[in-house]
Each structure stands twice: as C-alpha cells, then as structure tokens.
Amino acid sequence: MFAGKLGPRLFHGIRKRDVSISTYLRWQPLGRLRDGNTHRFREEAFAPAVPALMPFGYFNQLPAIRKWFQSPPIQECNGQTRFNGHYMNRFGAAIVPLEFSRSSDCYTPGENEECFQRVEAPLKGFLHWASNATVEDKERIYVAQASFQVLPKILRDDLPTPSLVSEAGRGDVYDTSIWLGCPPTYTPLHRDPNPNLFVQLAGQKVVRLLPPDVGHEIFCSVQTVLGTSNSAMIRGDEMMKGNEKALLEAAIWSDPAPDCEASFVGHEAHLSGGDGLFIPKGWWHSIKGIGLGVTGSNAVSTKAI
Fold this sequence. Notes:
This protein is an alpha+beta fold. The chain is built from 10 helices and 15 strands. Helix content is 24%, strand content 30%.
C-alpha cells in the first residue's frame, strides 16, 4: 500500500501497542503576502495553488470579530478573549454540531467510544461550558465545522464573503464553516477537496501544512501500520480517537531531535484574531488551538482556477 520514501524512516522504531512514533519532519514559517491586493493573492497563491498567509490583521474589520467576542482591556496583559454572552446568548437555541471529547485513557481498548462523540445540540450548551472552561479540563466541547447554513441569519450577516474569494477566482462558494472552542483544540491531519480561505476570528491557532504527495505518504504509512484502509477523503470518527489519531498527531506534532535529518520541511503558520491563511486544494493540514480564552475560526471553500 505504501511505496514512498518516507515510510521506513518515518516509522522506524514504532510500537503499535503504546502508539509511539518518531518523525523526521521539520517546519518552517509560512510566507506572508506583502499586501491584500487581489491581483497579488491570485498570482502568488491562488493560481499556483501554494499556501500563503495574508497580511497581519487583514480581516480585522469583520463584524463577527467585534460582535461575537469580547477582548480584555489593554491594561490587562494577562486578559483573555471571551465570547460576548450578551450578543451570542440571543442565538442559544440554534442547533449546531458539537464534539465532546475526554482526554484520559483514550487509547484503552473498549473505552474509545467514551472519548469522542459528535452530537447536534443547542449552541447555548456550548456557550455555558465555554464561560467556565479552563485549559486543565479533561472534558472538552468544540463547535467543529458547523455549516454556515445552520447559523441564524444575523450571525451569517456578521461573516460576509471576503472579496478575495469573490474576485480571485470564479466567485463560487461551496461552503462556509465555523469552529468555536476553548484551547487546547485539535483538528487532525486531513485534506480538503476545495481551496479554503481560513480566517481566525479570535484566539490563536497553529497550522501545519504539507503538499499533497507528502501528506498522502504519511497518511498511507499510518494506514499500513494499523492494517487499515480508511479513505483520505471521507473521514469519520477514526480521525478523533484511538490509534489513528495518536499516530497522525505524533507524525505531525512530535518534533524530532535537533540532530535528526529531516525527510521533508513542511510549513507552519501562526494565526491570531483577524489573520487569514490560504490553503490550496489537496494540501494536508492539521490545526491546534493554543493559548487562553476562546478561539474562533471561519473557513470559506471556493473553486480552484
């Protein structure tokens, strides 16, 4: 199943029982466009299908950033961004997809089903949990990849389609998704069938990206080790629990020792509120929410040229 060059080295010394792994990937900072000019974005990122960061704070004027979240006063150096409860609680009855996870004993045989679950539930349950959540909590709730269409119209109006999407390509928008959570949050290694413009609304996230061929080799190597043949395009709960989650997370996020020779250098992007990242079609990526407070993100899927 796997015939690429990364396999023998990437998984040298792996122990399936305790799900440990050594990786040979290194990460370099992703380049940032000099400005938000549509022509530059089209010529340097969209058309050649290469990832790129938008200028710092390029999306700061999105209404959702100032309406959905409350930033701490400037004098509070350790302050945390929170959801604007006065505004968001008005929409608590909206039904959204929630991911429930528990961090302890997630790889004990027979207990996987207790560690991760997806449900459709009112937004107010998440907002209540988020108002008291801490980074030490073992139980987590995440609004993950909620379709734009499930949101009330007022919230949809807070996230107008960026002009870059409507002007750089054909203007087609296939889907818009929302993520809301409290760090630490985690999205496993995957690839999308369409280009994405990923916008950080609040909080901080780190994104690690790999070209289609390299990401596919890593994914196939994990499948070989596990003796499975899951699809790289249709991903289910196996992404979020058990051995596959552990192997993919280790491959992408366990940095090698300084003296290890890297098989490939991937890209790493750090995003704060108002920042944007272009992810081309087929590029593999994994995302972690970091820091304190809350995190919110929005991704608009369009059509490649």
